[in-house]
């Protein structure tokens, strides 16, 4: 299971989470586990556990079709379906303990998304239907990673680079500065520089990306310093992006009240899928 990708299948989300998870599983050669939490009293609830395709066809033909489609695309041995009863948030948190990535939809109620993001045992990708591609987007088609030098940021960087490299996408490492009054970015491919930024921010980005540039030379990297509030700047950077990645420092209520809940805010407001990566358990964050 630790080499699997889990995906929550909910009626309110359509099949967007499944499309994202299936594509990632295909590109990475991992196993896919479909997780459905059944409403109490529904016909599907009577099939809780691991139903056969024939049983599923009787109680939920739509779910049976997408399950069969995933098995046809990835292979029968690489796709599994698990049905659970109970609270959706609790069951998804439980499922996160056995997978390397959990994919959920942005719908289904804010409470479910909040609890999963704050308690999941693995990175969580929150998906939504992709808006039409528009030209001129600063990081259109990129994997965007928020960088602040924290342990959580370092863990998120590894996830972002691995995802970008596996999907053959360019990476944009973004730091949001309270000092800057304008945006700055540097392109490693064209070696072009736009505007100016303070040296400390540039050094932080260089430290965060240098080793990964050597490990994954085929992945183009752009570095950017943006101005404004962190959540608003990252949401702005996510316009047209394929994925926005942020680290989660797992701060408590007091810490979130002091600095805001950036992972939850961008997961709710960013116009692209957002991956929230919890801080490595071996790392510590002073805040």
Would you spell out the secondary-structure blueprint of this structure?
Layout: E1 4-8, H1 16-28, E2 31-37, H2 53-59, H3 61-74, E3 79-84, H4 88-96, E4 101-105, H5 110-119, E5 124-127, E6 143-146, H6 151-167, E7 171-177, E8 184-187, E9 193-194, H7 199-215, E10 221-227, H8 230-237, E11 243-248, H9 253-259, H10 262-269, E12 274-278
Parallel strand pairs: 1-2, 1-4, 2-3, 4-5, 6-7, 6-11, 7-10, 11-12
Antiparallel strand pairs: 5-12, 8-9, 8-10
How does this structure look, described?
- Helices cover 38% and strands 22% of the residues.
- With 287 residues, the protein is an alpha/beta fold.
- It has 2 domains: 4-127, HUPs (Rossmann fold, 3-Layer(aba) Sandwich), CATH 3.40.50.620; 143-278, 3-Layer(aba) Sandwich (Rossmann fold), CATH 3.40.50.620.
- β6 (143-146), α6 and β7 (171-177) form a beta-alpha-beta unit.
- α2 runs antiparallel to α3 (61-74) and α4 runs parallel beside α5 (110-119).
